[in-house]
Specification:
single chain, alpha+beta, Spore Coat Polysaccharide Biosynthesis Protein SpsA, Chain A, Phosphatase 2c, domain 1, 4-stranded antiparallel β-sheet, 7-stranded mixed β-sheet, 18 strands, 22% strand
Length: 432
């Protein structure tokens, strides 16, 4: 059994997880993000500023999180490599504590084959000062600047490139930021009392990367400095000047790794992958074996979920059922592209053809999600044996029909088996 830490019983213990971002080979069906290769166009127009100046106090490890290794690479390296793989990025500026510049360079940059030039800049007391410090390293030859949190290692080159192109392709736009729609209910509070519940459809959770035209970004910083304004992110500086900032919908798994729970599930996925892979390599009866994974950590009302393959996690309330995870499958990719509807995907002949699994390679890329739950909510983890036979709506009705979690699971299992499920079926249900 892999050595996995239980954050509930051992909250003060932190292992250095070992997960790999992009090293699986899934042939023609695989993600284009695998095996990142650095590249620089002949005339790159964009400079990247990666902010790595935080103390990492909430992370709970001396020295912060940027140099904690994940699959043999510091977290900061994973972020920097994503920008190195974007041809239009001609310069990467790492903003970090001045007293640790040599350490960051020797551990996160020099040991790895970066193609894009990398320079370091000293971080400031606050994020805005750090961003400005990085901006001072960017020459006038760059027309665009992209800002990114170094502690978001799950960012993909495709997302970076798409965000840059959004600004380039909209001449009236001053910038574009990655965000995803708010999924939690929002409250307006005054003096500890709820005074309103706004329509959450107009609210988005901002992430990075954030891309801006270099000229207005410089003016925005100068104006903020002159007026003593401190923004909550880089986009707010542009917005203050009346600039137009576009939204690029990102993924909920592009989270900023902040607390130990952000890492533990990724470590567990890598541990599990290693065990399955070694078994397949050493046991002749298990050659070619693989499996899927879904798991979670719940602390208070904060939920972390990890998945590999097409096993799923659901968040269920009285009002709705919502899938947290995204299947790593051929049909899911087709749905995301708009080539299939969810209804067509359900009956597609390749619905069980997955693009990612435990044990098929030495390392695996796991997806990580984080969200807020409430007392009375249900959390369901299941294999594809259930979802191949029972729809999301049917699952929702069975849960609301009542009974203990054990009784609900049994009803779901019975329903699945009665439908002639050819696959094995696993169902785990929690009620908060």
């Amino acid at each position: 059994m892999p050595n996995i830490i239980d954050p509930v019983t051992e909250p003060s213990v932190l292992r250095e997880p070992s997960f790999c971002m992009d090293e699986l080979d899934f042939d023609a069906l695989s993600s284009p993000l695998l095996q990142l290769q650095g590249k620089v166009d002949k005339k790159p127009q964009t400079a990247a500023i990666i902010l790595a100046g935080g103390t990492g106090e909430r992370f709970g490890k001396e020295g912060g999180k940027q140099l904690v290794e994940i699959a043999g690479k510091p977290i900061l390296t994973w972020s920097a490599e994503a920008f190195d793989a974007v041809g239009d990025v001609g310069l990467i500026v790492i903003v970090c504590p001045e007293e640790r510049m040599h350490e960051y360079l020797s551990r996160a940059i020099d040991p790895f084959p970066f193609v894009t030039p990398v320079v370091l800049a000293p971080s400031g007391a606050i994020r805005q000062e750090s961003a400005f410090s990085g901006l001072e390293m960017v020459g006038d030859e760059y027309e665009y600047v992209v800002l990114h949190d170094g502690a978001r290692p799950l960012v993909s080159p495709d997302l970076i490139e798409h965000t840059i192109n959004m600004v380039k392709g909209n001449f009236d736009a001053d910038g574009a930021i990655v965000a995803h729609p708010a999924v939690d209910t929002l409250k307006v509070v005054e003096d500890g009392v709820v005074v309103g519940t706004p329509d959450r459809s107009v609210f988005w959770n901002a992430q990075t990367p954030q891309v801006f035209r270099a000229g207005i970004y410089r003016r925005a910083h100068a104006s903020a400095l002159s007026d003593g304004f401190v923004g909550t992110d880089d986009s707010s500086l542009i917005e203050r000047l009346g600039g137009k900032v576009l939204i690029v919908e990102g993924k909920r798994d592009n989270i900023k790794l902040t607390v130990p729970e952000d890492y533990l599930l990724l470590a567990a996925a890598e541990d599990a992958n290693r065990v399955v892979y070694l078994k397949a390599e050493t046991d002749r009866d298990c050659v070619g074996m693989g499996t899927t994974l879904v798991g979670m950590i719940l602390r208070g009302t904060t939920l972390w979920v990890v998945n590999v393959g097409d096993s799923r996690a659901y968040h269920i309330t009285k009002q709705a059922i919502r899938r947290i995870t995204r299947d790593h499958s051929v049909v899911e990719d087709l749905v995301a592209k708009g080539d299939l509807t969810p209804e067509q995907a359900r009956n597609h002949p390749q619905k069980n053809l997955i693009t990612r699994a435990l044990g098929t390679a030495r390392r695996v890329k796991a997806d990580l999600f984080q969200e807020t739950v409430a007392e009375g909510d249900y959390l369901l983890l299941c294999s594809d044996g259930l979802i191949n036979e029972v729809t999301d709506q049917e699952i929702h009705r069975e849960v609301l029909a009542g009974g203990t979690p054990q009784e609900i699971c049994q009803r779901l299992m019975t329903r699945t088996l009665d439908s002639g499920a050819p696959d094995n079926v696993t169902v785990v249900l929690f009620q908060l």
